[in-house]
Request: fold
Amino acid sequence: MKDLFSIEGKVAVVTGGSRGIGLMIARGYVEAGARVYISSRKADVCDEVASELSKLGTCVSIPADLSTEAEANRLAGEIAQRDSEVHILVNNAGANWGAPYEQYPDSAWDKVFALNVKGVFNLTRALTPQLHKAARPGDPARVINIGSIDGLSVPALETFAYSSSKAGVHMLTRHLAKRLAPQGITVNAIAPGPFESQMMAATLEQFGDAIAASCPLGRIGTPEDMAGIAIYLASRAGAYVTGAVIPVDGGISTTK
Reply:
């Protein structure tokens, strides 16, 4: 049983790994003994975070803007030059856009869907050969997509493209789970509720107390909560789970 949740020695890729939920997962993986690649659009920030995490284990920075197919292919290629096998891919990089209904711009849909949905598909496809090569009987390779509870129910804020894109991530997860299972790859999604992150900072500053009060467990999510579910899905403990969308929200989604 002591090895049931182990990911020691595995190779993991975490997109958007320099901040927020991606950083929570990347840090958890590094501390658990995985070799972790992180990517983000801002090269200096990505390099700085990788340097900091390398004090805890092994973390490598490969900056990339995953809103384009070319960048997804480049990132996969650079990883392939370093490691021929990838055991875990966490598709976390994402964008948000909030604006009133009457002023919601067309450009928001293009920007948000290009990264949040197309980026997930393009990088997963580009890394499929390395994921397939890493798969073992009883221990498949793992793809973990980061969705949102905003993709499960209508949020209070008018983030039309974001919430729609996360619903798309949930369905894409199921598509990919069915498609990739014969290659020894599981695909699941985490649907986070409120966590302390840059994307959530303004919302939590204004409504944090009310959000915590509305949560059945009475609090905001912690880095340990996110690292825990990500390690579970990546370990032997989660080897028979695929096509699932798992809310990690303290029970908020049960109240809607």
